[in-house]
Design brief:
Layout (H helix, E strand, L loop, with lengths): L1 E5 L9 H15 L3 E7 L10 E4 L1 E2 L9 E2 L6 H8 L3 E4 L4 H13 L3 E4 L15 H16 L4 E4 L2 H9 L6 E3 L6 H5 L5 H6 L6 E8 L6 H15 L4 E8 L3 H11 L5 E3 L5 H10 L2 E4 L8 H8 L4 E4 L4 H4 L6 E4 L3 H13 L1 H16 L3 H17 L6
Parallel strand pairs: 1-2, 1-6, 2-3, 6-7, 7-8, 8-9, 10-11, 10-13, 11-12, 13-14, 14-15
Antiparallel strand pairs: 4-5
C-alpha cells in the first residue's frame, strides 16, 4: 500500500502523536508498505526520504511547536506521483484539513486518529474557555464525520467521540511499543547517571511539561508523601521537556521539595528505558490522556503505576492488577504511592502483571491491525456511507 500521513507535528518535536506516527511507520515499512509523511518544517532538518515538509511559523504560547503553512505548488504533482491508496491524518486542524481536502479531491479513503482530547486544551484561551470547549468539540466532530474511519487509542475514548455526535465507524487501536527496548533497560543506570543513593525511593514521570499533564498536582502529592514517610530519601525524576519547566522548578521550591525533584530534560528512548527500569513507581497525574503511551512503556519495564483513573488511562491500567487507579484527590494519590512503597509484595505482584500485559502491545501486533484496517477501508467495506 501507499500511505499518506498528514500531521501537525513530527520530528524533531517530541509528543505522543509523533511517537505513534514513528512507531507505526517503522513497522509498516518493515512489512513492505510505502509511508509518506506530510508535516511542518521546524528549522534545518536534513532531508529525509518520503518526508515532505511545509514552511511554518511558531506560535507564541509554545515556541517548540510549529504551525504549517499548508501551501505548496508541488503538492498536486507529488500526490499524482505517489498514487496514495489511503490518507491518514493525525489532527483535525491545519495539516488534517489539508489531508482531508486531498483525500476528497482525489477520491482517496480518509482515516483519522483521534489522539487528543482537544477540549482539554482550551485553557490556552482562558477568557473564552466555556465557548472554546463547545466549539472545539463541534469542530472535531464535524471533522470526524468527513472521514471513512476513526481510530481512537482506547474504547473509553471511542465512546466519548461517539457521544460527540460522530457517525463514522470507530476502531479502538492503541499505539504499540518497542517491548524489547523497554523491557531490557539497565536497572542501575538511573542511579549511577544522576548520583542517586541506594536508599532513595524513585518516583518517575515521563511526558511533556505542559499544563494539561497536571504536574502541579503531582508535586503537591510528593510533598504529602515526603511528610508522611518522614524521610528525605525520596526522589521524583521528571524525564521531560516543555513550557512549564520554570513554573515547576519554582513550585518545587515553594513546596519545599526542590531537593526531591530531578529534572533530566528530554532523553533518547534508550535512556528513557533505563529510567523506567531504575525507578520504583511510575506516577501519572494526567486527566487528559487518550492512551498514555508511557504507561505501557513503564509496564514493559515492570514498573507499577499510580495514576488518576480518567479517560484513556482506564483502558491502559487495571486497578490492583498492574497499577493503582485513584480519583483526582491528593490524599488518595499520595496514599497509593505510600502503599506501594511500603508493600514490596504487592509492588512485585503488580510488576509481574504489568510486564505480561505490556507484551501484548508490541509495535508489530498493532501495525498488523492497522494494515488490516487500511485494507478494509481501501476495499470499500469499511468506508463511511
Amino acid at each position: 500500500m501507499n500511505i499518506g500521513v498528514f500531521s501537525d507535528s513530527y520530528r524533531p518535536y517530541i509528543s505522543g502523536v509523533v511517537r505513534s506516527i514513528d512507531s507505526f511507520t517503522t513497522e509498516l515499512r518493515k512489512m513492505g508498505h510505502n509511508v509518506y509523511i506530510f508535516a511542518p518544517k521546524y528549522g534545518h532538518e536534513p532531508d529525509e526520504p518520503h518526508v515532505y515538509r511545509f514552511a511554518s511559523v511558531r506560535p507564541l504560547v509554545n515556541q517548540d511547536f510549529a504551525l504549517a503553512i499548508p501551501i505548496s505548488g508541488k503538492l498536486k504533482a507529488t500526490l499524482a506521483e505517489l498514487k496514495l491508496d489511503v490518507i491518514h491524518t493525525h489532527s483535525p486542524f491545519i495539516m488534517g484539513q489539508l489531508g482531508a481536502h486531498c483525500a476528497k479531491r482525489n477520491n482517496i479513503p480518509l482515516v483519522f486518529t483521534y489522539h487528543t482530547l482537544y477540549d482539554q486544551y482550551v485553557h490556552y484561551v482562558p477568557l473564552m474557555e466555556p465557548f472554546a470547549r463547545r466549539a472545539v468539540v463541534r469542530y472535531a466532530a464535524k471533522y470526524c464525520n468527513r472521514a471513512d474511519r476513526i481510530i481512537t487509542p482506547t474504547t473509553v475514548v471511542a465512546k466519548m467521540v461517539r457521544n460527540y455526535g460522530v457517525s463514522t465507524p470507530i476502531t479502538a487501536l492503541p499505539t504499540g511499543i518497542d517491548y524489547q527496548l523497554f523491557s531490557s533497560g539497565d536497572p542501575n543506570w538511573l542511579r549511577e547517571r544522576y548520583g542517586l543513593g541506594p536508599q532513595e525511593r524513585i518516583l518517575l514521570f515521563v511526558g511533556r511539561l505542559s499544563h494539561e499533564k497536571n504536574l502541579d498536582f503531582l508535586f503537591h502529592a510528593v510533598r504529602l508523601v515526603k511528610r508522611k514517610l518522614h524521610t528525605q530519601q525520596l526522589r521524583l525524576v521528571i524525564v521531560a521537556g516543555g513550557p512549564e519547566r520554570k513554573h515547576l522548578e519554582k513550585l518545587a521550591v515553594e513546596l519545599g521539595i526542590r531537593g526531591n525533584v530531578l529534572f533530566t530534560g528530554p532523553l533518547p528512548q534508550e535512556e528513557v528505558a533505563h529510567c523506567y527500569r531504575g525507578a520504583d513507581l511510575f506516577t501519572f497525574p494526567s486527566c487528559s490522556e487518550t492512551q498514555g503511551l508511557v504507561l505501557i512503556e513503564a509496564m514493559a519495564a515492570g514498573l507499577p503505576t499510580v495514576a488518576i483513573g480518567a479517560n484513556g488511562v482506564l483502558d491502559m491500567v487495571n486497578h490492583n492488577s498492574d497499577g493503582l487507579l485513584v480519583d483526582l484527590d491528593l490524599e488518595q494519590f499520595s496514599g497509593a504511592i505510600i502503599q506501594l512503597l511500603e508493600d514490596e509484595t504487592q509492588r512485585q505482584r503488580l510488576s509481574e502483571n504489568a510486564k505480561s500485559k505490556a507484551a501484548t502491545f508490541s509495535t508489530e501486533n498493532m501495525a498488523l491491525k492497522l494494515a488490516a484496517l487500511y485494507e478494509e477501508v481501501i476495499s470499500g467495506k469499511g468506508r463511511a456511507e
